[in-house]
């Protein structure tokens, strides 16, 4: 922990008043209370309380009520890094769920695990089937068998239908980011060069693929009325992209500022996305660290795409996404330090550093990050994934390449239009009250 | 009517372009002016109207068991995929439409039958709405430097130029006529834009007939006169918008470009905008990309790149910027030409004007600009837009590129333009629709001969009457972006694909909530609040002052209806339909709701000639649409048994 204790968050002392300690804002047991209010089919298991069953899981995870901890322990041995299937999202509308896990360790000789089958089958209603969304292509999943991994066979999981998608692995994504940033910095002023470099970076392809997979998961849950299990290889990257985006699509609560923080906590930080490894260097790195990958940035990009398509349905504005991007890579706060909950606990981050959420959840900051167009929208929002609909996230990738003055001015103008309207509404209301009062005071008006 | 071989076909299917599995069955009617598809399913009647003059091309594909496919491509980028039950019927519809969509004479054009029920006086007012002389007056002309010349009255000097032209004060008729003889189609150098702040001007012409060595004293005097009309400048730019190679090739045909040695104090410059044939092919390629069925991101980006379209848009904008900067920053006059001076020259002069002068960024200003630089200066609308059967090599989307340049600028300067994207799209649509007389013919002389002012209607007054639909809520005349010269960036990444125009009819691709409509609704509410505020204030003052007097009974309109209900209404209907994310994997999905799907076509109803082209009426239905929220979102609670069947079958 030597490398950590010298980091900025350990020296940073807040110059602002902490209204609410962000380290306690999104505890698993609180999230479970929400779940309990909707269903009694799930329980909070402490099987991982000392991080021994799954080092990258938090101490508390939600699992089907009828599955005991022993079953969980056995299932964990059958999943990559012990990441046994846990609850990611409960769809209140129809009671369907989304779970996530690591890949099953079937290996080349088709190993099976009754407990794993029992665990995921426990999430299905009698007679119903579910979908397994494997974020890898069938070829990649096949190849994983040689390294002890694999996928759920039809024979052993007859109640599940498997769908393979093609979200790229982290090293490919990192290459893509480097190429994209290089394209954005190209000074040649040639249109052909720009478009071909943009295309060659494949960044937009990744955005489309991730968003499409998330939409598919959401569609299975909301439209097909089926439960879904999502996994890739480790279950810490593409899996989390899909499960978190599906929740943005399905659950209006995730589109609020606080709800989105909760989502990042649950589906990224507590779910064990290795931020320290993935977000060490960003695009400019000579050493090309093997674990580096813009997995979280791609997630934010996809959220931005949905935000662009539903500009009135999010309580936060683009600036919140940019802020999270920045803090994931470099921050005075301890929130994104470490790779997993266990590591954070060992470093005593809650005691020794300040949480980003402590900073965000103050009135002045919330106001800065909020979207003036927001109107609560309780619907599922289905984004378009056509190439024509997906844009380059200028606010991040062209931020330092071009002046945003005119766009900023337009934003201010928009805020002004809305504020002025509110101001007038208040004035009219107060005058109306004054008028009503005057009228009642007027003796002649009372006696016609 | 004699061209209609078959007025009505039953059981025609209209396929959804994005997901062909969704199709609608209805009856196809052919009328003298429109193709109408009427869907009459479950008591819900929906109509799709397509103006014959908007039909660009048709493709009749080989018949299969399900029928004979007929794909109609429209000039407003709508694509309709019909399947007609019998080959024979398809053949007849195809032949009829082929004839109906390609009028052989001007008389057949829609503008001569379009009758919005206004009397002759009103019609006169429509046409008088825009007055080009007023625009020259606005520029401060005529003055001591520039005069109105009558030399082209009766179109004797150049039959493709307007009758009224501004020339340098010192340019005598012999100089003008002499110069015109040295220019293609007699299109001599004349004024397009004048900056009264610094006297710099944008002039335009066609190429000189210089060949390898020819020169013309009058033409040289003409340029000299232009230079002298800008007293503070000791040189002028001559901008040839063509690529240098093209210009050199023209020399062999006795045409070419100015030799700097023959003209005193000119700086000659090539710009390199490609010709109409390159532009036509480029747009064609881009449209093919737009029409791909579920393309990958690479398909799309590669296709966009290889079409070259954005490269051409950038070239036009770069040229406009060069000229605008010369005028505004250097105070130097510019003469612009290409070959004939009615395509690239029109583009570049008008783009420069938009950059230079905030007036052309207003609703009325853009109309004036199009009327001046395009209509009056003889952009060959009928040839370029293929209004009637003609040489396909004459067709080219030159005006599309100008409108797109304006749109690209709007993307960079959201507060600089009084109008919105819908305004540009509506203009685009009517340039091709032949519904109004404005763009019929190839030049002023032809339009006068056709008697368009007497026999057709003007788009400009229609747009002005409906201006509320075309206002940009972010525009304020006093905003800093609405002042002075625009200096846009032309780094390649600043250019975007114009989804709103080229994929206009693929509604699923567009943002499901419109910030602009939201803000417009708020502004409308604000206006009402201001009125209420004033009336409340007045009443309070009255009451306070005249206690004891019985004041009139107050009628307060309450204001609890959220303005956003309208703005969101239309969009959220669509919000509830997932796309085909599965690539056909989940085939069991019977739950694609019909309702929002049809909204795509329902909107087209608004485009019947008699009604508003914009979505003005959508706002009304917005509230009603909101009520569909719950049925739509509950749509997925289906019979669990059907799930079962589908999965086990799979």
- Determine the strand fraction of chain A and express it as a percent band: 5-15%
- Main beta-sheet strand count, sense and barrel state of chain A: 5 strands, mixed
Largest sheet of chain B: 7 strands, antiparallel
Largest interface: A-B, 85 and 101 residues
Which regions of chain B are unreliable across 5 or more consecutive residues at pLDDT < 50?
Answer: 551-571, 587-650
Number of separate domains of chain A: 2
Mean pLDDT of chain A: 94
- Measured between the Cα atoms of the first and last residue of chain A, the distance is 84 Å
The pLDDT mean of chain B sits at 86
Indicate the low-confidence ranges of chain A by residue numbers.
none
The quaternary state of the protein chains shown equals heterodimer
Domain Myotubularin phosphatase (chain A): 22-397
GO cellular component, one term (chain A): cytoplasm
Protein name (chain A): Myotubularin related protein 9
GO biological process, one term (chain A): negative regulation of autophagy
Write up what this structure looks like.
The complex is a heterodimer of chains A (448) and B (650). The mean pLDDT of chain A is 94. In chain A, 47% of the residues lie in helices and 8% in strands. Chain A has two domains: 8-399, no CATH class; 403-447. In chain A, the strands form two sheets. A five-stranded mixed beta sheet of chain A has the order 3-4-7-5-6, covered by helices on one side. A two-stranded antiparallel ribbon of chain A has the order 1-2. Chain A has 448 residues and is α/β, with parallel strands linked by helices. Chain A has helices spanning 2-5, 28-36, 69-77, 114-121, 138-146, 170-184, 191-201, 203-222, 238-250, 257-269, 275-278, 295-309, 318-329, 341-346, 349-352, 356-360, 363-369, 394-397, 405-441, 443-446, and strands spanning 42-45, 61-64, 86-91, 96-100, 130-134, 160-164, 227-231. In chain A, α5 links the parallel β5 (130-134) and β6. By secondary structure, chain B is of the alpha+beta class. Chain B has two domains: 8-102, PH-domain like (Roll); 120-517, no CATH class. In chain B, 41% of the residues lie in helices and 13% in strands. Chain B has 24 helices and 14 strands. In chain B, strands 4-3-2-1-7-6-5 form a seven-stranded antiparallel beta sheet. A five-stranded mixed beta sheet of chain B has the order 10-11-14-12-13, sandwiched between helices. Chain B has a two-stranded antiparallel ribbon with strand order 8-9. Residues 551-571 and 587-650 of chain B have low confidence and may be disordered. Chains A and B meet through α7, α8 and α19 of A and α8, α9, α19, α20 and α23 of B.
